[in-house]
Predict the 3D structure of the following.
Amino acid sequence: MSITQQQVLDALAKVTSPRGVALTDANVLSAITAKDGKVFLSINVDAAEAGAWESVRAKAEAAVRAIPGVTVAMIALTAERKPGSAAAPPPPRPAQGVPHVSSHRPPQSPTSPMSKQSEIPGIAAVIAVASGKGGVGKSTTALNLALGLRDLGLRVGLLDADIYGPSVPRLTGIREKPQLNDDRKMLPIARFGLAIMSIGFLVEENTAMIWRGPMVMSAITQMLRDVAWGTLDILVVDMPPGTGDAQLTLAQNVPLKGAIIISTPQDLSLIDARRGLAMFKKVNVPVLGIVENMSYFQCPHCGTRSDIFGHGGARQEAERLAVPFLGEIPLHMSIRATSDSGTPVVESEPDGPHAAIYRAIGAKVRDQLRGVIAAA
Ligand code: ADP
């Protein structure tokens, strides 16, 4: 059933704004996108007023979601700072070194960039898998790492938050759409013993989605919070590539217990990885370590190893920056082939050398999160 703009406006007209008039008369709404039961829009207000508008945003979202035929409603609050208004407070000082992740975060002041965070009930640890740029194998690593953690006996979920190019549908072969439960929360797709969610399950492949900054946040927040994840030890979040504003906001808004940076040995991507490290430190998210992907070439026929990219850069970089080095994954045909056919290597070749590498990386991650998981 297709949803019309008028239906959305009618629903929004029933919500009163803090200005005392209907939301539709408050001159704050962006254009409305309504397609295949999915509705996206934003409410644009001055940063100083944002606090008063959050409950309105939530009511507006509930009103749109109640329209028959709406499967997804995302309404973002865009807080634009007026020129000359007070600057944001500085981010908290980064922690020095990351020997162990505590289950307690330092208290956040109400004005802290992290004050929007709240834990997700049932999930002990949300961790991010990030990279400075695309194409370094971040998604492949995130999925195989999630499977490696599963093999260690943990309850694991995977959230594909790479909304610009969700690859988890391709990597897992999942084609079905998530169902809603009685609370109208989306049920993650169960595959390979993981609870999996991706924006790619909701939009058609090749649908160009144009995301403005605040919508990115809103979409990801919904996929975190409006999904019935159940009880998980670890939720692995496959982040959008890059270390720009969208990623920074995400790291500020999601209660991350740690981040893993994926890099290839080439210098350029190491520079990007350094940016990733700086970004997570800025928002006080512990960096669990760096993984060097496509570290060396392993011949699929004879198994001979060639260090074609001058391997080892990520390990040295990790040492220099005093963050753990989690491991190196070879560039290997079977990793590419299994990944692209929806049968990740840890699942399809569980006794092979690659699965062992992902499990070893998983063990290093689990060891750092032990306190958090035990506390939950
Ligand atoms: P990203 O998420 O960083 O954009 P992907 O995980 O989608 O990257 O990987 C990009 C391509 O590289 C895919 O075709 C994937 O199969 C391949 N790939 C990733 N890691 C490896 C590896 N270690 N060996 C061989 N191919 C790999």
User: Anything to note?
Assistant: Residues 353-375 form the longest helix (23 residues). The first strand starts at residue 33 and ends at 35.
